[in-house]
Amino acid sequence: MADAGVVDALLRRVEAAADGVDSIDVASGLGVDHQGVVGAVKSLLALGDVIAAELRASKHWELTAEGEEIAEQGSHEARVLAAIPPEGLAQSDLMKLSFGKVGFSKAMSNKWVKVDKTHEGGPRVFRAVESAVDQVKEKLLLVRAGKDQLEEKEKNELKKRKLLSEVTVKSYWISRGSSFSTTVTKQETELTPEMIASGSWKEKNFKPYNFEALGVAPESGHLHPLLKVRTQFRQIFLEMGFTEMPTNNFIESSFWNFDSLFQPQQHPARDQHDTFFLSDPAVAKDFPPQYLERVRKVHSEGGYGSQGARMLYKLAQQEEFTPVKYFSIDRVFRNETLDATHLAEFHQIEGVVADRGLTLGDLMGVLKQFFTKLGITKLRFKPAYNPYTEPSMEVFSYHEGLKKWVEVGNSGVFRPEMLLPMGLPEDVSVIAWGLSLERPTMIKYGINNIRELVGHKVNLQMVYDNPICRLD
Fold this sequence. Notes:
This protein has helices at 4-16, 23-30, 34-45, 65-73, 76-83, 91-95, 100-109, 135-144, 152-160, 193-198, 225-239, 254-257, 289-300, 307-316, 360-373, 416-419, 438-445, 460-465, and strands at 21-22, 51-63, 89-90, 113-116, 124-127, 164-176, 243-244, 324-333, 345-356, 379-386, 389-399, 404-414, 428-436. It is flat. Helix 1 crosses helix 3 (34-45), helix 2 (23-30) crosses helix 3 and helix 4 (65-73) packs across helix 8. By secondary structure, it is of the alpha+beta class. Strand 10 and strand 11 form a beta hairpin.
């Protein structure tokens, strides 16, 4: 409840006024802060029709802190002129003054001073006029006095120099309501058993219940945006008829991660600068021997014109080939330099489609459908190189926050050098794509730095405030 003294004084002023009063005038007359009067207005409005209040907004010009200084001491250029003695002043000494740089520039523009660059002691500043009228100070004094005599051009010039600022003031125009009274009785907010027993509730004035008010939200857990988007990604894959691949291992051998994908042993991705390797165990030995030999042969001799590799190998072991669509969402690790869009630990999303007669057009169509379901419609495809796909494409999406195109995925058609050693029929093509979970989440939530989404810099309030993700 607002201060009772302010409420009483406000009611008396409203009673004495014929049409109403302005809350700013009331605050000035009572010598109190305007917010105190606003609090009194809101308290009276909560009581019903005691008063009527109309919110109004007005604009006026105020001096900034620098403007107040100039109104007292003079403009920078006038102080520069006053600081120059008849014999002149070294420009280097003038620039050491707090008002020197700005004042010198303005004084030169006004042709109040001149510079002798040939002076034997270095450039020297002399007066070009004996005296000058400080119009800037005069204009600021007019504004401070409340005399609005300046033209808009003059005000804007002072605003550009950060000497004036336009301020919007909101106030209430207060008038009598249909139930106006100078005596206010506090409304009851709770019906107690004692009131019912004694019957005193009949004489009480109760505050109306607000049935539109929202209750206090119960405390509960909240999902991180990555988990929300991950769930939606999974649902999209399932809607498109994909089957989820098992993602139960963070550690993979170089055979399944590189060799089976027809990735040369001299490829940069195999270097320790790009991939994390374990020292214990240092090697892996459990591989299908016949497939291992075929992969060795295609790497060393040629002969044909991740997790995904394991599943395709299992597919090839079936007696009769059947078209499939696989996906996985798993955490991966890369020895990456950290910046606004890269982390050393992130989520990799993979999609794989195996069928007869698939082409690059099928891949682009699936990608278009997939990203449209994510709510990402601005897409670009750029030719790229992958050891295991040909042709290959990088997928870019426009990030509204960063105002640039950001790579969101990689894609391509798996090479026969990868597929045929597995035992897949020669007429079967496999299209595939991969993307991170983090970058589409950043685009969807308008996050510009990936470190604000993952890691120790995450703002937990952001997790609390963000609603359930709906990729529409």
